């Protein structure tokens, strides 16, 4: 018997008393808590407090601040959720050249090609730095968290698509649909210019009697974007014939031409009927002269249960824990179907549930590089981030981009069509040291770009934002609960207080003496960020 089977067996009385009986083979999953999807209702024994408010905001906002968490405690769950679900319009004024309505086609001459490529590279670089800046400057909202989530689901890589304009259009499509009708979301992504390029559906067409059927998008539409390869009982959700017939149905789409003429492409998909394979197809048991949206309708009709479970399991792993509790996922999937594929209904049900707020799920997820690095910048109020000077060019203004790339997460450039794997893959022997080094260097204020201080952070002013900075014990407790996500043990708490006092008695603590307080606060923070709890949220 393996260890997991032993730990997940059910206990029941056997014929001789209270023995341990193995009822079946190893289960498909193990429940970590008995709490279900019923709404969490604050009570005397289970109050809405800092821990729960912090848990909600950390899972929904990249870099929630202590002030935002305390306001959430004061205003309550309903008010906080209303703020989280309120969208905002990101500022695109600094990337106006990326948002032009028309995209140039590569020119013929060598000289023009070099100028064109330089322009493409410059716009890529600006866009790669824009999104982290938007995330750090965002108000209290689910929007950036969900935009990154859907980017990892409906994946496109800027290194493959090349044109920043198309990647920005796709990014805006995520924002438009992130809480809406998932079926409509899938349809819009199927004709998105970046997706047409990335998964080769722009190459999927009929020319005269010749058929150039490309199956890449059809396969990923089912495998990664909707129903998954198999259902929960390992039965296949589709066949190779479905892939081929689906690809035929998806043919005929290209990118709309620009009104400016042959030298430009537009930024929307265009269906050209003469390029579509109009012959009859049989897809998932249905026969007809199907087009792209027909295929998507059939997937939701014939594999609706599998679609609901597949997507809800991904949502669960994003907001709760990287191993899904399928009892909870089944309930979410039913909500998904009952609400005509409305994404908000599912996410709000989960975020309101007793299951979400169960102590087993608090501080149980590893921070992604975006959640870790951008979280530090936003949550601590870091200024002078070199990458955020979008008008500047050169390697000096790509420091954050390089750091996130080294940790395995570049926004707009996931590793492949499966997106980021997430979970425990974020932290390893190769990624933990640079993660910690960044936090330590920010605290010490030693990062400089061209002899100019970068990632500017004042530890003393940071400490003064907490309610009682003149009380060493309370300050230690307040900063600990903000930084560590999980309540430190008694031993850790004693260590952190000793570090803050640096050998001095409690009564000598003086927050108003910078020479005394600032180095001690830095030492405290450096000790805190090196605890394993700081890597979790």
Write a structural description:
With 537 residues, this protein is mainly alpha-helical. It folds into three domains: 30 residues, no CATH class; 278 residues, no CATH class; 77 residues, no CATH class. It is 49% helix and 6% strand. A three-stranded antiparallel beta sheet has the order 1-5-4. The chain has a two-stranded antiparallel sheet with strand order 2-3. The N terminus is likely disordered.
Care to give the gist of this entry?
This protein is mainly alpha-helical and 537 residues long. The protein is built from 24 helices and nine strands.
Please supply descriptive tags for the structure shown above:
single chain; mainly alpha; 3 domains; disordered N terminus; 3-stranded antiparallel beta sheet; 537 residues; 24 helices
Topology:
Elements: H1 3-8, H2 50-60, H3 66-75, H4 77-84, E1 103-104, H5 110-136, H6 143-153, H7 158-161, H8 164-177, H9 182-190, H10 193-198, E2 205-207, E3 210-212, H11 216-226, H12 240-249, E4 253-257, E5 264-271, E6 281-283, E7 286-288, H13 292-302, H14 304-319, H15 326-338, H16 343-351, H17 354-357, H18 369-380, H19 399-407, H20 432-444, E8 448-449, E9 452-453, H21 459-464, H22 472-484, H23 490-501, H24 514-529
Antiparallel strand pairs: 1-5, 2-3, 4-5, 6-7, 8-9
Helix pairs in contact: 2-3, 8-9, 9-13, 11-12, 14-15, 14-16, 15-16, 20-24, 22-23, 22-24, 23-24
